[in-house]
Structures are given as C-alpha cells and as structure tokens.
Amino acid sequence: MPKVQLFSGRFSLYKVILYHLLFALLACSCASQKNEAENQAKTASRGYQNPGPSKRYDNEAMIVKPFDINNDRIIDMWKIYAYEKELIDVETPKLLLIRKEVDSNFDGKVDMWMYYNANENLIKEELDTSFTGNVDRVLYYNQGQIMRSEAYTIDANREDSETMGDASHRKPNIIKSFRHGVLTRVEKDNNADGIIDEWEIYDEEGQIVQVGEDTTGDGKVDTWRRYKAME
User: Fold this and answer.
1) Is residue 119 within 8 Å of residue 95, measured between CB atoms?
2) In which region does residue 123 sit, left (phi positive, over 0), alpha (psi from -120 to 50) or beta (all else)?
3) Closest by alpha carbon to 139, among 175, 163, 86?
4) Residue 55's closest CA among 41, 36, 81?
5) How far apart are CA 178 and CA 185, in angstroms?
6) Cα Rg for the chain, rounded, in angstroms?
7) Pair 210, 184: CB distance under 8 Å
8) Looking at CB atoms within 10 Å, which of 43, 70, 126, 227 has the fewest?
C-alpha cells in the first residue's frame, strides 16, 4: 500500500506540472492572438484609425507595428516582425522584419506586399496596381537589384477575395529579366493562353536587338526580327 500511495503522489505531481505547461502554452497563444488587436487599440487611443493589415496571412505569432505614411491619422503601413528562431529562448530574442504591407493609395486596403530575407533585405514585392484586391505585378530582387518582374492580366469578371488575391494560381502574361539592374529579356503571352509567344532580347545597354515570334502556338520561335544597335 505505501508503494501505491507513493506512485499516486508522483502522478499528482505530474498532473500539476502538465497543467502548468498547458496553461503557459494557452497564455502564449492568447497573447499572440491579442497582438494585432492591441496594436489597433493603441493606435486608436492616440487618435488614429487602424484598418489593420490584409487578411492574406495569419499574423497571430507576429509583431505588427503600424505607421501613418501621409500623416492623416489613418494607419497605412504595417511592418510585420517575427522572432529569430535560434534566439527564441534567450532573454531578449531578436526581432526580424519579414514583411511590409502598404496602402499606397490610402483607400483603406493593402495594395503592396514587400518580403524580406533573414538579413532583412528585400527579396520580393507584390503589387495590386489596379486596386482591385488582386496582385498583378510581382518583382524579385537580389542584393538590392531587380532580377525579374512578372505582370498578370486581371479578369474583370473574376472577383478574388483578399485572401486569394495573390498571383500564385495564375500565369504571367509578361515576364522581364534583368542583369545587374539592366533589362535583358522580355517574354510575352499576347493572347493570354498561358503560352509565351513573343521574346524580346536586349543588349548590355538595355537596347532591343532581337524579337522572336511564335506564329503556330506551340511555344517555340518561328520567326526572328533583328534590330541594329542605336549609334
């Protein structure tokens, strides 16, 4: 009987520890869920309106910092930070900027998304230049220089929700490639069938030198037009 009592005591101790762990995890979860609401409440208490960032991403575990770009007391830029994973257990873990969201035309809706790597260097931009809630431009960067841009045709009959406004489910109709910031190649899908049918080639100065066309729809060049470099 004493052995049974001892086991029972240990079991009770384990339950107490488990309850404390579960409570701590729940508290962390609740704190992260309140993060965005607290930011909005703080800015509201200072006389600012804060419509909040887009709904495309779950920001529960992130730190969201609001900014007023044009000083109209309406928040129009949000910087989203995450804790560096390797430092999460230290006393003061480092915050890393992972994304910016901007309302560039000040209509209360995000139309620019900027993404950053672990060194907080810009690596990608997504733009809604038509202000319809759909991403229609995507730009890629490397070491501060543009490497590639993609343009997308928006179907006026299609109404994407804000969470589905990204371009990942669509094919670009114009792709531009760059080298050291200079345009080197443009690929176009002129009839919007998902197949590239025109290629523009540029020289080191960014001057067009060749244009290839696919006249049969098989995705291959059938004819080339060549241009003389400008004197």
Assistant:
1) no
2) alpha
3) 175
4) 36
5) 7
6) 26
7) no
8) 70
The model scores a pTM over 0.70 = yes
As a whole number of Å, the end-to-end CA separation of the chain is 102
Q: How far is CA 97 from the centre of its chain?
A: 12
Q: Minimal CA–CA distance to 151: which of 169, 176, 180?
A: 176
3-state secondary structure of 114: strand
Residue labelled with tokens 């006249």: 215
Question: Residue 176 corresponds to which tokens in the numbers above?
Answer: 């531009």
**219 pLDDT above the threshold of 70:** yes
Q: Which pair of structure tokens corresponds to residue 151?
A: 């343009």
CB–CB of 122/115 below 8 Å? yes
Tell me which residue has tokens 């704190």.
31
CA-closest candidate to residue 141, choices 149, 151, 133? 149
| CA dihedral sign, ordered 68, 108, 150, 97 | positive
Q: What is the pLDDT of residues 29-41, one digit of tens each?
A: 444 444 555 555 5
Phi, psi of 69 (to 5 degrees): -70, -45
DSSP string, 159-227: ---GGG-SSTTS--SEEEEEETTEEEEEEE-TT-SSS--EEEEE-TTS-EEEEEE-SSSSSS--EEEE-
Give the DSSP letter string of 65-110: EEE-SSSSSB--EEEEEEE-GGGTTSSSPPEEEEEEEE-TT-SSS-
Is the distance from CB of 94 to CB of 88 less than 8 angstroms? no
